Amino acid sequence: MKALLSKLPGGPQSLVLEDAPVPVPGPGEALIRVQAVGVNFPDVLIIEDKYQYRPQRPFSPGGELSGVVERLGDGCRLTTPGDRVLAMVTYGAMAEKVVVKESNLIKIPPQMPFDDAAAFLFTFGTSYHALKDRAQLKAGETLLILGAAGGVGMAALQLAKTMGARVVAAVSSAEKAEVCRAMGADEAVIYDPNPAGSDTRRALTAQFKQALGPGGADVVYDAVGGAYAEAALRAIAWAGRYLVVGFATGEIPQIPLNLALLKSCDIRGVFYGAWCERFPELRNIEADELLRQYAQGAVRPHIAERFPLHRGSEAIARVAGRKALGKVVITID
User: Fold this and answer.
1) What pLDDT does residue 322 have?
2) Residues 168, 156: contact at Cβ < 8 Å?
3) How far apart are CA 297 and CA 29, in angstroms?
4) Residues with Cβ within 8 Å of residue 128, at least 6 apart in sequence
């Protein structure tokens, strides 16, 4: 089989497409014939050795996939060969075949295309867990989303609207703002893509406050980090909830904790992958709810671009450069 491999730490250009042995499923595992792979920012970090996990090389990046069950190891009872499934893994998905724990597989409805399935759970699962479990977002509250035109940002936007929230989408270009408004954002803020210096940060805070209104943001969804974080925190409402989702800028912000005191607000971490490992039954319940919303047409991944496996490094480069409007997907014949 073919696999996109990381042999040395580096950027997308360091990846190579090579032949690799077909893995054999062990007890409780399933061999999946991969049809599509969702590309996410952790894929950028893991090949650079900047992620929470550092796999032994060579390995394939890719933490989100859809495909067909081809073979089962001993003890598998939840699926059968031929089932259409999606799964989240830490790495390994950018290959024609991959072994996954059967307990991690989620069956997908017949009407769901493989590319939608591969672009679904990482972003919508993360955002649903963030808004429902961590923020307890309520109808009528105001949500500020940083990086709203990215994969998790667009998922958060759609889900927040189904929850009855007012959404302010913060993005780096007029094109991204237009897409977010078309998806239901009530307001859009176009911020400087490279903020630097105290004057720029003060201007950014002023932009956020103007769009949010006098009450500020009841919830801030931050998958961007960097200089945007402090500016957004300064625009939060009294007793607001600040969600730390990720750091797409590559910069972990240094937050002055006196701001949390002055606003009496909470700063809450969102680590969806670890939550899934700790609470698999709750993960399955929420995944079923999201798939119901998908079937009803309430939510849908916005796939910006599709790449074949041999151009997988280009797909990761698009995510690394924060160029995509929505999700990037690798398709495998």
Assistant:
1) 74
2) no
3) 32
4) 155, 159, 286, 289, 290
Residue 198 has pLDDT above 80, yes or no: no
Average pLDDT of span 244-260:
91
Neighbour tally for 234: CB within 10 Å = 19
Q: How many CB atoms lie within 10 A of CB 166?
A: 20
Which whole-number Å values give the CA distances from 65 to 234, 240, 263, in the listed order?
A: 38, 35, 41
pLDDT on residue 66: 98
b/e string for 60-78 if b means 16 or more Cβ within 10 A? bbbbbbbbebbbbbeebee
d(CA 206, CA 6): 43
Task: Look at residue 282 and tell me whether its pLDDT is greater than 80.
Answer: yes
* Structure token pair of residue 16: 């190579």
**Model pLDDT, residue 116:** 97
User: What are the backbone angles phi and psi of residue 72, rounded to the nearest 5°?
Assistant: -120, 145
**What six digits make up the tokens of 195?**
């903020």
